[in-house]
Design brief:
The complex is a heterotrimer of chains A (225), B (57) and C (280).
Chain A lengths: L3 H10 L1 H32 L3 H15 L2 H15 L6 H22 L4 H9 L4 H12 L1 H17 L2 H6 L8 H9 L7 H21 L1 H14 L1
Chain B lengths: L7 H25 L14 H5 L6
Chain C lengths: L1 H5 L2 H26 L2 E2 L7 E2 L3 H8 L1 H32 L6 H9 L6 H16 L10 H29 L3 H9 L4 H30 L2 H6 L11 H11 L4 H27 L6
Antiparallel strand pairs in C: 1-2
The chains are: A mainly alpha (225), B mainly alpha (57), C mainly alpha (280).
Chain lengths: 225, 57, 280
């Protein structure tokens, strides 16, 4: 037993720091995505017009577009708007991850009977109040499914943060592991294995502690996708 | 379904073996991460093993 | 009710729409425009017609990447779906420990492509080094290495979808067939598979698009070595953008071609399998 490799990985490659940034980015993005896209989805299913129909189609369309199509221009845009920070990327993830989330939320909102909301509105609730006190609690299972799918995606995403983050200041777990291979000539295999292990363990713990939701969420997402 | 699978135990044993193989890659990396000798392989016997880790860009 | 909701559109639509504009619509439209331009950054973009596309199609590496990707996708599509379907069939029977097996098979899915790529690189190189070989010596090793990695990662995911599909088939259908004297194979071909078509559609669609869009695993496992022989389309586009100076326009044109290809294949595939689905 030698924990030397783990110490090396943390000291030489600042592994813990990249874990921290990954957590900040993932949690921030998922919370924002869940809140904003569920409101968006509720609005476009309840208000019927050409504009909302168009928005829905745009969201579905964005799910099919491969990232390579927009990667270069997206990195230019984030550079120009100075969004190359973990919290700036929250906006990018909201934009790029909206497709799947809106799609899944719309599918669920359609199945909610409109009468419940109408009753709340007649009682004098504003649309915002109605959404937060009536619609949001009903949608809880969908929140969990969408949250899990988006977490899996953002936590493991490599290319988007690699191209848009300011790499002199920030790094994520996949980026740190990728950079360990390069630029040094000789590679510290021990540190790489240690970081691979440190990257895998939190995922496995997360998986085993809520696997019921994860498997359900994935199945639900796939059936609709 | 009433049809109880014949050889239920056989399937269980088979799948247990497959499962062990399935998680083996992760376990191998886990075990190796505690070994300290690996950095020395740059000039050691496992030369090719290390050469394959040349930077990509 | 609609009217009162409508007044709140800045609150409900605003944030997502703005982010969507920045994160998707603007880059997408700019990307299409820039594919017809010669540029290093956006400010010096000059319109040059279909020049980029011509150069993209003349690029031998791009063609090779396409063939490699197509071969890879077909191989993984067949392997993953057949194995996942078989495993799902066994695991929906009453076998001790099915839940543990499902948990194990699904796990690799949650681990990211970069991490998995390096895990398997260590494993493959560790095995091959016993014979004085390495993963990056031959494109053949790289190809099968990638196939094994992707199968290992995705079988669990497809298995979960197939299991969900199998559980939704009414049990009396199979029983009725059994009473009519159909044997196991006949039941599989004539009852189970036709009823599973929706799941099969989803799984083949997912494996097809995943195969074409594969990037992380390709980068971390082989990075295109040796000599770009194992470079897939997504990685080829990435390298065109960031590996060669002055090729950004060509890279963008390749990206547009790639996008059209993925969408077209997805649509064709959906049409083909949807037509085989039975109405229930």
């Amino acid at each position: 037993m030698a924990l030397e490799n783990f110490a090396n990985a943390m000291e030489k490659y600042n592994f813990l720091e990249s874990v921290l940034w990954t957590v900040v980015m993932t949690v921030g993005s998922v919370v924002v995505i869940l809140l904003c896209t569920s409101m968006f989805a509720w609005y476009i299913t309840r208000v019927k017009s050409t504009a909302t129909k168009l928005l829905y189609l745009l969201c579905v369309f964005s799910m099919v577009v491969p990232f390579q199509m927009v990667m270069f221009t997206l990195s230019l845009v984030t550079d120009r708007l100075r969004l190359g920070t973990p919290w700036g990327l929250v906006i990018i993830y909201l934009g790029f991850g909206a497709g799947l989330a809106v799609f899944m939320f719309c599918g669920f909102v359609k199945s909610i009977p409109i009468e419940i909301e109408e009753a709340a509105m007649i009682d004098g609730c504003s649309p915002l109040r109605t959404f937060f006190s009536v619609v949001l609690p009903i949608m809880k299972p969908t929140y969990i499914s969408v949250g899990i799918l988006e977490t899996m995606w953002i936590w493991n995403d490599f290319l988007l943060p690699y191209l848009t983050l300011d790499l002199n200041k920030f790094s994520t777990i996949p980026i740190t592991i990728q950079r360990m291979q390069g630029s040094y000539g000789r590679v510290d295999m021990g540190a790489i294995m240690a970081s691979l292990v440190m990257a895998i363990i939190p995922i496995v713990v997360f998986y085993l502690s809520c696997q019921k939701y994860i498997i359900k969420g994935v199945a639900a997402g796939a059936v609709k996708g | 379904m009433k049809r109880k699978a014949r050889g239920g135990w056989f399937a269980t044993i088979l799948f247990t073996i497959i499962s062990i193989f399935y998680v083996a890659p992760l376990l191998i990396v886990l075990i190796n991460s505690f070994k300290e000798a690996l950095i020395k392989c740059v000039c050691g016997a496992l030369r090719i093993f290390c050469h394959s880790f040349v930077a990509i860009s | 009710m609609e009217k009162s909701i409508k007044r709140y559109f800045p609150v409900f639509l605003g944030p997502t729409f703005l982010a969507f504009l920045i994160g998707f619509i603007a880059p997408f439209l700019m990307g299409i425009y820039l594919s017809f331009c010669d540029f290093r950054t956006v400010t010096d973009a000059k319109f040059n017609g279909v020049q980029n596309y011509v150069r993209a199609f003349q690029d031998g590496e791009f063609a090779h990447a396409f063939l490699f990707t197509a071969l890879f996708t077909v191989t993984t599509l067949i392997l993953i779906n057949v194995i996942a379907f078989a495993v799902a069939l066994v695991l929906t029977r009453e076998i001790r420990g099915t839940n543990i097996f499902r948990t194990v098979f699904f796990m690799p899915n949650l681990i990211g492509g970069i991490v998995l790529g390096y895990v398997w690189q260590l494993i493959f190189n560790g095995l091959l080094s016993r014979y004085d070989l390495a993963l990056k010596i031959s494109a053949r090793y790289g190809f099968w290495g990638l196939v094994i990695l992707i199968c290992w990662q995705q079988i669990g995911y497809m298995m979960i979808i197939y299991i969900a599909g199998l559980q939704s088939i009414p049990g009396d259908l199979n029983e009725a067939a059994e009473i009519d004297g159909a044997n196991g194979w006949q039941r599989l071909w004539n009852v189970t598979i036709p009823n599973m078509m929706p799941s099969i559609t989803i799984c083949t669609f997912l494996t097809l698009t995943n195969g074409f869009k594969l990037f992380d695993q390709n980068l971390s496992l082989t990075a295109g070595e040796p000599m770009k022989q194992t470079e897939m389309l997504a990685l080829n586009i990435f390298n065109t953008f960031y590996g060669r100076v002055g090729y950004q326009g060509v890279g963008q044109a390749k990206a547009v071609v790639f996008f059209v290809l993925v969408v077209a294949l997805g649509l064709i595939q959906l049409k083909m399998t949807r037509s085989k689905e039975v109405q229930q």
